[in-house]
């Protein structure tokens, strides 16, 4: 089979692989659609989290092609969604309640780190009964593929932030993850929702998903802008979905959050050995500001829960798919588009 892979740091291209085979609890999926993620770009151009020369991609919907002997709930022909994170559910980490880290820190993020990803004709999924979700027919592929990563990651930022009804929330970065955090904050009942970004296509989407205020980081220090909006009080929660370079998003989030507030990070810091914390704005270490960061939740139950938001009209992530390509061969063009990030781009999707 063909796949689009990392050849070496800074270089991608097409490769040929043998079609994968399932273990007793696993499934082989025929790919139907994929999304291109900035995390894939970090892996190639900033240095990999895992092995070199792996097939890229971790966002996909597909059709079950083959299942192992112990798979009970899925069979060939089922149209499914698979999450970007695929835990091994028979691990101590899962019993401790941290399935994202099964097998070690971030161990459930397998695609492109320890195994081939989804930019191929077929891909392998471990623990199929626990990591696949049946896809309702009414949900189009370009929307469904957002539930592989963008929707869970953005909403997890809100879960970590835990805003109360009427809370003031700031989302830093309104790429696809940040936009889903804006939507999640609105679903959660936040009052003032401040979105930080400058790209017109993302600004319009943020307003659509529930942002009450837009701040442009190019127009001045965003912590000062938040202070002005909130009468110098700051926000109850800040969700970091951007500003990865130098950890500036996290730094600003701590500055703009009031004492007793929460900083929730779902950004991927791909470079550097440390992250900055502003000493005075953290109350010299005693400001009662809680800092959380987490990999998206995973597994069949969570995927089905997120899909229900789409199925029943609570959330429509289709607006994220600004560029839809048809044909697997267009992965390469979509990949380079994601790297270039033209002004009208939020997210590219390739439908096979």
How would you sum up this structure, described in words?
27% of the residues lie in helices and 23% in strands. By secondary structure, it is of the alpha/beta class. It folds into 2 domains: 2-149 and 296-351, Quinone Oxidoreductase, Chain A, domain 1 (Alpha-Beta Complex), CATH 3.90.180; 153-293, Rossmann fold (3-Layer(aba) Sandwich). The strands form 3 sheets. Strands 3, 4, 5, 6, 7, 14 and 15 form a 7-stranded mixed beta sheet that branches. It has a 6-stranded parallel beta sheet with strand order 10-9-8-11-12-13, with helices on both faces. The longest helix is centred in the middle third of the chain and has 13 residues, at 176-188. The chain is globular and about 60 Å long. The model has no long low-confidence stretch (mean pLDDT 96).
């Amino acid at each position: 089979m063909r796949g689009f892979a990392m050849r070496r740091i800074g270089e991608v291209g097409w490769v040929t692989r043998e079609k994968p085979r399932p273990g007793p609890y696993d499934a082989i999926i025929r790919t139907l659609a994929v999304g291109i993620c900035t995390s894939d770009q970090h892996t190639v151009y900033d240095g990999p989290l895992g092995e070199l020369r792996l097939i890229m991609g971790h966002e996909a919907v597909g059709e079950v092609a083959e299942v192992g002997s112990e798979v009970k709930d899925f069979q060939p022909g089922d149209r499914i969604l698979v999450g970007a994170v695929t835990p091994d559910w028979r691990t101590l980490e899962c019993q401790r309640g941290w399935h994202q880290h099964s097998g070690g820190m971030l161990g459930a993020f397998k695609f492109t780190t320890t195994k081939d990803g989804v930019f191929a004709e077929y891909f392998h999924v471990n623990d199929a009964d626990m990591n696949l979700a049946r896809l309702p027919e009414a949900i189009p592929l370009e929307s469904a593929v957002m539930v592989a990563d963008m929707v869970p990651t953005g909403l997890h930022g809100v879960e970590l932030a835990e805003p109360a009804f009427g809370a003031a929330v700031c989302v830093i970065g309104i790429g696809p993850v940040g936009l889903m955090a804006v939507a999640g904050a609105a679903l959660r009942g936040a009052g003032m929702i401040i979105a930080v970004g400058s790209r017109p296509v993302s600004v319009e989407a943020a307003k659509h998903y529930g942002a009450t205020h837009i701040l442009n980081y190019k127009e001045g220090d965003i912590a000062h802008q938040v202070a002005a909006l909130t009468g110098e009080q700051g926000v109850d929660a800040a969700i970091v979905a951007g500003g990865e370079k130098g950890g500036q998003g996290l730094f600003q989030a701590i500055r703009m959050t009031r004492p007793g507030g929460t900083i929730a990070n779902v950004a991927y810091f791909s470079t550097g050995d440390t992250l900055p914390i502003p000493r005075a704005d953290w109350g010299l270490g005693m400001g009662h500001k809680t800092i959380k960061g987490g990999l998206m939740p995973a597994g069949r139950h969570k995927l089905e829960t997120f899909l229900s938001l789409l199925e029943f009209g609570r959330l429509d992530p289709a607006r994220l798919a600004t560029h839809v390509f048809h044909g697997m061969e267009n992965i390469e063009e979509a990949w380079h588009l994601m790297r270039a990030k033209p002004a009208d781009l939020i997210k590219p999707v390739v439908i096979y």
